[in-house]
Design a protein that fits this description.
- By secondary structure, this protein is α/β, with parallel strands linked by helices.
- The chain is 44% helix and 15% strand.
- A hairpin with a 2-residue loop joins β9 and β10.
């Protein structure tokens, strides 16, 4: 071992010298993709806006919505099975092209009930434009790629801003000015309307036509953040629902236009030169350690203790694990699986499809009220459609299952 130690020291010194002699190359490329993702710190992400929402709406609840409006607003409307009644402002920044008929209907109902709907995007689906009787057009910016955004309200003139890297402007080409209020303009060669307020039922719909104004790049450049403050000042001082359905689906549900490609958790570190060489150095030193310590050694003879009954300890450990990790989804999946398995074993009923026929057959075999069985089955179907779970969902499911067994 005394002969090996100097060799190991020399090899380590050579490796360290090689690593420090390599100068990291700064070849980072800026990604200008318009993701409008509240988790993204890239120029055209909206993480800065998302973090500032609690300051813009002080004391109000900020909720991030990972579901379509058709499912989320329906579940959280009066008389349904959500954990609250949705009330306040629903904000959508970019990527609104997923809003089909069912979601548009729920959003319009949300506004009609006295709430605010705010959408900033380059255009809207026919379901929205036809319902609101508006028309949108586009003009290319052939001069300098700079657009000037301004407010109609004179008190907000100090918050006007200019946006660069803008290849063109979308604007409202036609609308009924007798009931639609003009709030703001965009100007390249001439002034055009790009921000309107549409009274709808007891609430309001705010439509804006340039989501880039809300991105990290523009909020952090000069004093353009004032324009965003001016736009959002029209929203009521109430709770906020921030739409993240398409971003969540893309990042966590392998939704990528059919191309699914998952990156390794180590890939980001290997892209950073200092981390990469530190990783390689650690692997090399580990390899050297293994090579020089591979000689035969007498293993320690362990004292084998007699087996103990650890069933109770095991149950405590597992329960503490679930409690500490807050793994509500895992527990909910297991409770549903065990509940359906017991139904199959006790009543010989197929549980692959939980529909009205299943509810009727289970009620007839158990002698329980059909309405009680319908409540728990509909709640199970709703849980299966969710991606994010909370402790209240688990408690409610457990309450329904215990009620089923006790009656």
């Amino acid at each position: 071992m005394k002969k090996i130690a100097p060799i190991l020291i020399v090899i380590t010194a050579i490796v360290i010298a090689i690593v420090f002699s390599l100068k990291p190359k700064n070849n980072k490329v800026i990604d200008w993709e318009e993701t409008f993702d509240e988790r993204s710190t890239k120029p055209y992400g909206v993480s800065v806006l998302y973090k500032e929402l609690p300051n813009l709406f002080k004391g109000k609840k900020i909720r991030t919505v990972y579901h379509t409006p058709s499912s989320y607003l329906f579940a959280n409307s009066e008389g349904n099975y959500g954990d609250h009644i949705a009330k306040g402002s629903y904000i959508i920044i970019g990527n609104s092209d997923y809003l089909y008929e069912a979601s548009v209907k729920q959003l319009l109902n949300f506004a009609e009930r006295g709430n605010a709907l705010f959408i900033s995007d380059y255009g809207y689906l026919n379901e929205i434009t036809d319902t609101l009787n508006i028309d949108i057009d586009y003009i290319a910016n052939t001069k300098d790629s700079i657009s000037h955004f301004s407010f109609k309200n004179r008190d907000l003139q100090s918050k006007n801003a200019k946006i660069d890297k803008n290849e063109g402007d979308f604007f409202f080409n036609s609308f009924d000015s007798t009931y639609i209020n003009i709030l703001g303009y965009t100007k390249t060669d001439k002034k055009r309307v790009n921000f309107i307020d549409i009274p709808f039922g007891d609430g309001n719909i705010y439509l804006h036509l340039d989501p880039k104004a809300f991105t990290n790049y523009n909020i952090l450049k000069d004093d353009r953040y004032k324009y965003v403050e001016g736009v959002l000042s029209y929203l009521p001082d109430d709770n906020v629902y921030f739409d993240s359905y398409t971003k969540f689906s893309t990042s966590y549900s392998s939704y990528n236009n059919g191309n699914v490609e998952e990156d390794s958790n180590l890939s980001w570190f290997l892209e950073q030169t200092p981390f990469k060489w530190a990783w390689y150095l650690a692997l090399l030193l580990l390899l050297i350690f293994i090579v020089f310590n591979a000689k035969r050694k007498q293993r320690i003879i362990r004292i084998i203790k007699p087996l103990q009954n650890t069933t109770v300890a095991f149950v405590k450990t597992i329960s503490n694990l679930y409690f500490e990790t807050q793994d509500h989804k895992n527990l909910i999946d297991k409770k549903i699986t065990y509940f359906l398995a017991k139904i199959r074993n006790d009543y010989n009923i197929d549980t692959s499809v939980l529909d009205e026929d299943f509810i009727t057959r289970l009620a007839s075999k158990t002698g329980k009220k059909e309405d009680d069985i319908k409540t728990i089955i509909e709640y199970i179907n709703w849980l299966r459609s969710k991606k994010v779970f909370y402790e209240d969902n688990l408690i409610t499911l457990n309450k329904y299952i215990e009620a089923f067994y006790s009656k």
